[in-house]
Amino acid sequence: MKSWRIVGIVLGVLLASFGSVQVADTATSVGRWMTVTAYCSCTKCCGEHAAGYFASGEKVYWGGVAADWRVLPPGTKVEIQGFIGTFEVEDTGRVIKGPRLDIWMPTHREAKEFGKQRLWVARNAR
Ligand SMILES: [Zn+2]
After folding, report:
1. Which of 40, 75, 81, 116 could form a disulfide with 120 if both were Cys (CB 3.0 to 4.6 A apart)?
2. How many CB atoms lie within 10 A of CB 115?
3. From CA 44, how far away is CA 79, in angstroms rounded?
4. For the segment 33-63, what is each residue's pLDDT rounded down to a tens digit?
């Protein structure tokens, strides 16, 4: 009897995770796998002219991301697998080409620890 309960729990978890995949791929949003990296406002990440502003002119903030503006134009709102909330395309960069996303983070250490990940990025189609 006890093992059936465990099977039920495992099945529930599987269904729940499958459900979350479907949420990211509903009729109102489109998604794709992207190579996601992170950066901060330091000179290592942004060069010697690092000024603490995104290419859009906005002051840097948590929730701003850099993308290839031909793929995701500035102002595009995206959801990134594993992160809570909505991110907005504010920045771009020489090396940010194609299906790439660069998440702004407040410290260089966090950005470095994030490394490079392949994540599902959902874009609100409305
Ligand atoms: Zn940095």
Report:
1. 81
2. 9
3. 27
4. 999 999 999 999 998 888 899 999 999 999 9
What spacing in Å lies between the alpha carbon of 40 and ligand 1's midpoint?
A: 4
Q: Do the beta carbons of residue 68 and residue 96 sit within 8 Å? A: yes
Contact status, residue 32 vs residue 75, Cβ threshold 8 Å: no
Which residue in 33, 75, 35, 36 sits closest to 54, CA to CA?
A: 75
CA–centroid distance, residue 43 to ligand 1 (Å): 7
- Separation of 39 CA from ligand 1 center, angstroms? 5
Per-residue pLDDT tens digits for 55-100:
999 999 999 999 999 999 999 999 999 999 999 999 999 889 999 9
